[in-house]
Amino acid sequence: MQHAATSSSAAQHSSSAPFPAPLTGVVPPLCTPLTADGEVDAAGLRALAGRVTDAGASGLFVLGSSGEAAFLDDARRATVLRAAVEAADGRVPVLAGVIDMTPARVIAHAERAAEAGASALVATAPFYTRTHPVEIAEHFRRIRAAVPLPLFAYDIPVAVHTKLPASVVLELAEDGTLAGLKDSSGDDGALRRLLVALRGRGLLERFAVLTGSELAVDGALLAGVHGVVPGLGNVDPEGYVRLYALAREGRWTEAAAEQDRLAALFALTDVGPEALMGRNSSAIGAFKAALHLLGVIGCAATAPPQVPLDSEAVKAVRHLLEEAGLL
């Protein structure tokens, strides 16, 4: 009864858009703008959300990898959710990352997301401990039973050290536990085989498959994915919206040219010296530096212990933005 009441309350107060089945298009995983002292810059987040929505995004994904969810406490996560739902203002659905180690912890995040008015939830497999496919399936079933919002599985083995088995995805798609999949596995062959299996079972009409690979969107769309969740979409949402539209129109040569332009721009994720920082610090720092240079957010700070970009790296970001015609 408690979960039903939470869901009902969320439905009464939410300003989120109705959730489509399947979800299609461009769904940028929003960065989380921070102030210099590490607080969430809600105004900056609303500006970013408005920018990508105005560009034609089909939805907003908050509190994922690009949103630095792993570095934010519960209070900051709640601020992000409220700002995103407010910014969406019913125009597009808001997908809330509820990533954590165990079902109990994920469900607590999911309940708060529902109360804030999120349209859907995004969760990884459980992590830290080693889990069996039966346990992974049970993890998602518990989340879905506790908070009855559409639930997406986030396949990101680089972060959780588990590749979601295709058998589990098919099982949970078939029984309605999952509404979709965000594939950031980097395994294009496995994704293609999963699409074939989903199509063979008639599930692609209601189960959304979204690629998280910014560099191979045209190929993934040709293979049958429904859309893309591009971190680089924070910086150039219009480019990904154009790419999606060209692919949907079957204009593959033009789509490939747009993909090539975006691939060149993606070089900004490597501006941070490998000897001084991890690739996450480099990528998130570059996205935020670009947004700061573009005047979207007021501060390019990243959450500790990530290492900030130095002035030379920021100059490299500026140069790439100029080459891409964004500055």
UniProtKB/TrEMBL annotation:
Keyword Zinc-finger: no
PROSITE patterns, A to Z: DHDPS_2
Pfam families documented for this protein: DHDPS
Domain of life: Bacteria
Keywords (A to Z) from UniProt: Lyase, Schiff base
Entries under InterPro entries matching the protein: Aldolase_TIM, DapA-like, Schiff_base-form_aldolases_AS
CDD domains on file: DHDPS-like
Family listed: Belongs to the DapA family.
Protein name: Dihydrodipicolinate synthase family protein
Annotated organism of origin: Streptomyces albiaxialis
